[in-house]
Design a protein that fits this description.
Elements (H helix, E strand, L loop, with lengths): L3 E3 L3 E6 L2 E6 L10 H16 L5 E6 L14 H9 L5 H23 L4 E5 L2 E3 L1 H7 L3 E4 L4 E3 L13 H9 L1 H10 L2 E3 H7 L9 H13 L3 H33 L3 H12 L9
Parallel strand pairs: 3-4, 4-5, 5-7, 6-8
Antiparallel strand pairs: 1-2, 2-3, 8-9
Helix pairs in contact: 1-3, 2-3, 3-9, 4-5, 5-6, 5-9
Length: about 270
């Protein structure tokens, strides 16, 4: 990649063996729309192959990491399935493939040969948790706030948090956060082990950690990542494949329609289990 690349949703700067990937929108709070899902795997695939890069630092612009999935912008992904009432097998298969593409975009961080540090400030919600869970190191500012929020919009989280969080924070805490969808602060994230440090200057500290990694022998660093990932890859992928099937079968529901309507109308949702 060139030393500086500005895309629709990401800005990449490479210097001294470190690639900085900044989430830049264009949606409010760096919400993840079609541009993000297209560009993320392209960028991390290129960084993985770039021999000048030894470590990657990922962070958000504008005081937030990301508000998560941009539901209005991603409506075309859901619309065919919902329009058919979930009854059209061809549309369900198309939706399953769409889920797989989004999963692969998140997994591009884990598959990147270079270690990825996620530096979180402000909000990190839903799909953003999926993204940081695929990173190798996570740090956060004291002002960071988190939520595995998919359950509140009638979605079984399907991009990796249910598969990766148990290995990071433990099975019990992962179930607690995924089933309640509650918000939690940086201190709790630190106590759970989701993040390993709470520096005031989270991006500055991320740069320090990236420089420490970049100073180590690159093939050894890559080997550490590959060996540690090896034991996790098969069960993570099996879980991702299973949730593709689950959501392509069950996401088209009255509860999901209620969740999206309530979101658009800025009111509490009322779920009936239908």
């Amino acid at each position: 990649m060139s030393p500086t690349t500005s895309l629709r949703s990401l800005r990449v700067h490479i210097a001294d063996g470190i690639a900085e990937v900044e989430l830049t929108g264009p949606s409010k709070g760096n919400a993840m729309g079609p541009d993000f899902w297209r560009e993320l795997p392209e960028v991390f695939g290129a960084l993985s192959e770039d021999d000048s890069v030894r470590a990657v630092l990922l962070y958000g612009s504008g005081g937030n990491f990301s508000y998560g999935l941009d539901l209005p912008a991603m409506a075309p992904v859901f619309a065919p399935l919902l329009g058919a009432g979930g009854m059209d097998a061809r549309r369900r298969e198309g939706f399953r493939r769409s889920i797989r593409e989004l999963q692969d975009a998140v997994s591009s961080l884990a598959r990147c040969a270079k270690p990825v540090i996620a530096a979180v400030d402000g909000w990190c919600i839903g799909g953003a948790i999926d993204v940081i869970a695929a990173a190798d190191i996570r740090i956060a500012s004291p002002a960071a706030r988190f939520s595995v929020r998919e359950v509140k919009v009638a979605i079984v989280a399907d991009l990796g948090s249910l598969q990766r969080l148990p290995a990071i924070i433990g099975e019990g805490p992962a179930r607690h956060l995924a089933l309640t969808g509650e918000d939690f602060d940086a201190d709790r994230a630190y106590r759970l082990g989701l993040v390993t440090e709470l520096p005031d200057d989270v991006v500055g500290r991320g740069r320090e950690l990236a420089a420490m990694i970049a100073a180590n022998p690159p093939l050894t660093v890559q080997g550490v990542k590959q060996v540690m990932n090896h034991a996790l890859e098969a069960p993570v992928q099996a879980g991702l494949d299973y949730v593709q099937l689950w959501n392509s079968a069950f996401l088209a529901s009255r509860d999901f329609h209620e969740a999206t309507s309530a979101f658009a109308e800025r009111r509490p949702a009322v779920f009936t289990g239908d």
